[in-house]
Structures are given as C-alpha cells and as structure tokens.
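Example record

One chain of 562 residues, shown exactly as stored in the release files.
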Amino acid sequence: MTRRRRREFDKERHDRDQSREAFKFPLDIDSDETSTKSVTPLDSPPAYVRRPQRETKYTASKPSVKRPTRMTISKARQVPSSIYGMKKPERTERDEREIYLEKFKNYNSVIVDKIVQERTQREKRKDKQKMQEQQRRAELAALKKKRDAQKANGEPVRQKQKPAPRDKQRDTLSVLGSKQDKLREKQQAASGRRVGPNVTQPGISMLGSSQAADYKEPDNGLWKKIDAAFINLNVEGRVISYTSNGIIGRYEVKLNRAFRVSNIPRLNAALKEELNLDELRIMSPLIGTSNIGLEVPLENARPITFRTLFESSSLKLRKSDYKFAVGKTVDDKIFSYELSKAGHILIHGNQPNYDTNVTDSILLSLLMNHNSSDLKIAVAAEDDKYDDYLDVPHSFGPRLSPADPETLKLFLHELNERSVAFRRAHVRNIQSYNSRVKFESKKATLVIIIDDLAALLESKNPDAVRALIQILKQGKPLGIHVIANYMKADDGIRYELLQLLQTKIAFYDAGNNAVSGTDELTQGNDALAVIPTSNKPNRISIGAVSKTVKQSVFDHIKHNNR
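Predicted structure tokens for this chain:
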C-alpha cells in the first residue's frame, strides 16, 4: 500500500502559471506583459480605456451640426414663384388673439356671442375706469403744483370745503322709501311691470297633523309567541330587537350560526302555521348583520301622514334639488330620492280602491319647494283625478287623453326643441343649460303624468308607443320625466319599457311582473321600490295625502304665486 503524497503550496509554480495567462481581461489588453503584475490605481482614467480612439470620442466636443444619415430628409430647393420670383412676400405680423378669433369667424352661437359681448363690455369699462383714474391723478397733480406755486409766492391758498351735514330724516325716508318712490312703484304695478319677487313657499303648518307618537311600541304578546314558536320548532333563535314604521313591524331574530340559509323558505312556512299569520315575510339577512327579520303587518296601524315625510326628511330644508318623499321603509327611514337621479318612474299595480297616493306624494313634494318657473306638470288621463294640478301656475297645459295620438306628439315636440337648444348651447343636461342662460331663457323641469299606461300600450297606435320610447330614452338629461301608472298587475310589461323606467314602485303582484318579491306583500299601501343606484328592492309603506292638505297647498300657490 503506497502512501499518499502530501500536497504543499508551490509559490514558484503559481507565479509561473500567472505569467502564462491564456486570456487577459479587457482592461489589460493594451497593457504590457510586464505590467500585469502591477496594480493600476483607480484614479488614472487611461487604465479603463480599451483603445486610444475611445478616449478622444468621449472627450471631444460634440459636433454642432448633426451628420446626415440615410434616413435624414434634406431641405427642398426653393422654387421661384411666378409673381414674387425668388423673393419671399412680405407678410405683416399678426396678433395671436387675431389668429385665435379666426377660428370662430363663421361660428354662430347665442351663448358664445353673449360671452364675447360681455367680455368686450367689461374691457371697455376697465379702459374707461383706467382713463378716469389717469385723468383724476393728472388733475390732482396739477392742483398740487398750483398750490405749491401759491405757497411759494405767498398767495393765500383756498381751503377745501367740507361737505354740508346730511339730513338724518331725509336719509331715513330714502331707505324706507319716499313718497315719490312709492308713487313710482304704484305706477309700475298698474302698468303690469313686476316690481319684486312675489313668490312664497307653502308653510309646513298647512300639511295637517303628524304621525301618532306611539307607533314604535312593540306587541309584547307577539314577541313572546315568536320566541315560543322557535322553541317548538327546535330552532335555536330568539328576538333581540323591534323596529316599526307604523304600518309594518320587524322583529330581529338572532339564529344559530349553523343554521343554513337554504332552510329559510321552510322556516317561513312553519312560522306562518305556528303563529297563525298569513302575511309573514322573512328578510334574510338584515343589512349589516347576520340576523333575520320577521316582518308582520300591525293590527293597529298608525297612518304615515305627508307632514311626517316632509318634516323627517331633507325636504324641510326647502332646497331646490327636486327631491321627493314617498313613504317609510320598515326600519323607520324616510324613502326620498332626487327626481334627476330617479329618471322615469313606474307605479305598478296601484289599485284605485286603496288609498295609495304615490303620485300625490311625489307632486306635493315638488310643489312645496319649487315655483312655476322651475317646475311644470302635464297630465295625460281620462278622468279628472289630477285636475287640481292643472289649476296652479305650474300647469303645462290642459289635460290630455292617453289614447289620443296627438298627446305624446306634443311632448315629443317639446323634447326636440330642448334637444336643439341644448346642442346650440353646447351642453348635455338641463343643469348646465340653466347655469349659462338668462332667467327668461331657462327651461323648467317637466313632469308628465300618464295615469293609465296599459290603455296607451293597448290603443293599437304604434306612433304613440314610439314617441313614448323616444321620450323615455332622451328625456332624462333634458329635464323631462314620466310618471306612469300601470294598473293591470296581472299583465306583464315589455322588457324594453321596464329597462327605460329606471325607478319602480310595485304593489302586490302574484306574478312578480315588475319587481320580484311582490307576491309576499300585503294588500294596500305596502310596496317594493327599486332605484337606479341599487338592485335590491326596499319595502316601503306609502304615506297618505288627504284632500284637505292638497287643497290648502293649492290655494296657497294660487294666491301667492302670481
């Protein structure tokens, strides 16, 4: 067995291998073989240059003229003109403002002409004020120079006269109005010229009484029955809270976490049988919680008055935002919405034998906060149910028949006129248009009431249906809104019309033709509302509007809005 030779470091062999290096690094290509062993300092730049010409390339200054390449476009040679020859024509220098205004030379627009006219007048007023200021300064300088000369010559200087004391009694008469001013106002009133604003909004006191204060008290007997029913059904659940709007009461039930949502329909049927309630609706789950809600109609209902809707919502702020209030949700919140966002409204299944005043609540909400220059109401109905709205200054015209072919043509003509006016003003909606024009040229929001939409669709008049569809497609940004009442709950509506009528308020309907879930509602003022910003319907109880309240509001508008 041979012993392994011990390895040792041979320094001479290592140096010899270093001197016979097969490949040199790029930094050492131009260096001598003797200089490989020496370390080049980092401060010397020539050691980092591979070729001598590279050094001159980066150190030399860049050429002032770019070298032409194969892709360079050369300048075209000058071609002599038949008129000027090789000389260029002398062109006068033009102002940038003149060049800019040439774009609008053949441009016809009432709005632009008005803006240009106002700007020109404003510039003239500024120039006039500037000239008056310069003239006043020159006069003061001349007067000061004259006074200095008089002082230097020793002549007496005329002192500035103080203004005479004003008569306080005369000032009081001028503020309150002198006899001549009062006589002038009487003459203007006799001539038919408007002196000042004569529009007042109806007061809240004329809206009647509010809702009863005890509508939030729960039925303790039913509370105990619900807890006992869950025990009998071997379901782990108990009532933890109660809310009500005066018409519908909701008992919030906390269930076991292991309870499946798919068992909700069976639980609903079992609770109806156990509690002996035919009209029971389970809301699952409640918004913001994992609990369910048992919605039960109250035996002793507290009607929701219009005054309660008005005082409990933002309508009491008396803003001109075209907001309306219809009713209350089950969790005792006011259902209010802006007409500009609601678009067109469909009232489906509103039977005349129930006191469900959806249209009255919408129109009264608008009439309380808007005058005749901001709101117009048009009625297309066979009976005189809405004739009270035609006696106020907000009326757009006489009552029309829905089956008449010329009814919707009148509204279509108004739609086309507004479309042309908005296009000329370069705007897309009524808010932008009214913010740009004078008060006399502003457009009012038009609300069209179609009392019986089913009769209009069944009139075998295709022109009327096409006109209605065009109004529904283009009317919302132009300030034209349709409130259509579809009484035949058993019949379905065309899908196209359902999509164009963005806001839907549907009453009891066993077929769920307009809104899904209406088969679980009760007869009366119980409804489901769908708004454009949410796909989930809200259960609301419609407020009641009495004839006395309507008449008092109409009388005030007639006598105080001339």
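Notes: Residues 359 and 483 are 8 Å apart (CA to CA).
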